[in-house]
Amino acid sequence: MAISDSLNPISPLQKLVILILLLTMIIGGFIYFVYLPDNVEISRLTNDIENLKREIDINKVRAKRLAELKQELENVQRELALKKDQLPPEIQAVQLLEQVEKLGNKIGLEIKLWRPGARRVNSSGLYVELPVDVEFLGSYHEFGMFFDQISKFSQVINVSNLKMGNPKQEKGKWLEPVTFLATAFASVEKKESSPSQEKRK
C-alpha cells in the first residue's frame, strides 16, 4: 500500500459511523452518570412525599377524632355533674330504702330478710351507693305490683341479682321467695372539718 493511500480523506460513511459512535457514548454517559442517579433520587423523594401525605392525612383524622372525643368527654362530665346535683343527700336515700320496705308490707309481701350492706363511694367519686340485701315472700301478682311501684319512684332504686325460689302453697295461694339487691344512690357529701382542723385555720 502506498503512503498516499493512507492519507486519503475519511469517507463520508466512516464519518457517519464515527459520529454515531460519539453520540452513543455521550448519550450513554449522560444516562448512566446523570439521568439514572437523578431518576433514583426523584423516585425516593416521590415516595417520601407520598408517605408524608399519608401521615398528614392520618394525623388530620386523629386530630378530628381527638376533638370529637374531647367533646364527648365534656358532654359526659356535664351530664354526670347534672345527675350528681339531682341525687338526694344520704339521709334521704336511706329514707327511700325505708319506703321500699314499707311498700312491700303494704302490698302484702312478707319480709324474710332486710340486711343493709356496706356504704360505698362509687369509683368515679360522684355518688354513694347504699345496698340492701332483701328477701320477700309473696305471690307473683304481689311482686308485679311491688316492682311496678318501685319503677315509678321519683328517685332511682336499682334492683339487681334478682332470684326466684321454689313456690309453695300457703293460705290458698302460691307464694314464692324472691331475693334481690336494692341499691339507693346519694350525693357525696363534703367532709366536715374536725375541731382540730378548725383551730389550725
What does this entry look like structurally?
The chain has 201 residues and is of the alpha+beta class. The chain folds into two domains: 11-86; 90-187, Ribosomal protein S6/Translation elongation factor EF1B (Alpha-Beta Plaits), CATH 3.30.70.60. The protein contains five helices and six strands, in the order H-H-H-E-E-E-H-E-E-E-H. Strands 1, 2, 3, 4, 5 and 6 form a six-stranded antiparallel β-sheet that branches. Helix 3 packs antiparallel against helix 4. The termini are far apart.
Report a brief summary of the structure.
This protein has 5 helices and 6 strands. By secondary structure, the protein is an alpha+beta fold.
CATH class division of the largest domain: Alpha Beta
Helix count, DSSP H or I runs of 4 or more residues? 5
* Name of the CATH superfamily of the largest domain: Ribosomal protein S6/Translation elongation factor EF1B
What is the gyration radius calculated from CA atoms?
45 Å
The count of domains is 2
The secondary-structure class comes to alpha+beta
CATH architecture of the largest domain: 2-Layer Sandwich
How big a fraction of the residues is strand? 15-25%
Give unreliable regions as ranges.
192-201
Name the overall outline.
rod-shaped
SSE run: HHHEEEHEEEH
Q: What is the β-strand count?
A: 6
CATH fold-level topology of the largest domain: Alpha-Beta Plaits
